[in-house]
């Protein structure tokens, strides 16, 4: 079995404010079928495009950073498989960012927006946005019943 620090399906977050790795997880801890038997699949996410950095250089930077997280005895056994550069993978979070956008699409349409692009580009942001959309819908329905 590939060396990994846990068998739990956890998401590792970079809370240091340094480095280029935003988060990483062991996909095979989520679903064994994501990798061949006795192998672990590691997925790492970076924020940014790094257009001026080659894939080889980017891989080197990520590996060096993850060595700091988990050590040579673990990361040293890993083999890079693929790099995907996904443009527009997350909503623009550049300042100024309006985290309190209204979920309503104009008056009288009965349409509401929700998603991480409405708040913050996080799982929590998506959930908060969904809650706001439902609250706006319920508020509008209550008001329309009074009229």
TrEMBL record:
Q: Which InterPro entries match?
A: Amino_oxidase
The record's listing under Pfam families reads:
Amino_oxidase
GO molecular function terms noted in the UniProt entry = oxidoreductase activity
Instruction: Tell me where in this chain the Amine oxidase domain is found.
Output: 21-138
Would you say which domain of life the source belongs to? Answer: Eukaryota
Q: Which PANTHER family match?
A: AMINE OXIDASE
Name-wise, this protein is Amine oxidase domain-containing protein
Q: Which organism is it from?
A: Chenopodium quinoa
């Amino acid at each position: 079995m590939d060396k990994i620090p846990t068998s739990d399906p956890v998401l590792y977050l970079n809370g240091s404010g340094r480095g280029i790795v935003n988060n990483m997880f062991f996909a095979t801890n989520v679903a064994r079928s994501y990798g061949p038997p006795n192998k672990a699949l590691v997925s790492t996410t970076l924020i940014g495009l790094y257009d001026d950095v080659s894939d080889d250089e980017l891989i080197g930077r990520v590996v060096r950073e993850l060595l700091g997280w988990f050590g040579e005895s673990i990361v040293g056994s890993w083999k890079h498989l693929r790099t995907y550069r996904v443009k527009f993978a997350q909503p623009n979070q550049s300042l100024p960012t309006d985290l309190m956008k209204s979920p309503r699409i104009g008056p009288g349409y009965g349409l509401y927006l929700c998603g991480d692009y409405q708040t913050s580009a996080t799982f929590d942001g998506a959930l908060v946005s969904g809650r706001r959309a439902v609250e706006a819908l319920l508020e509008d329905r209550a008001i329309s019943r009074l009229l």
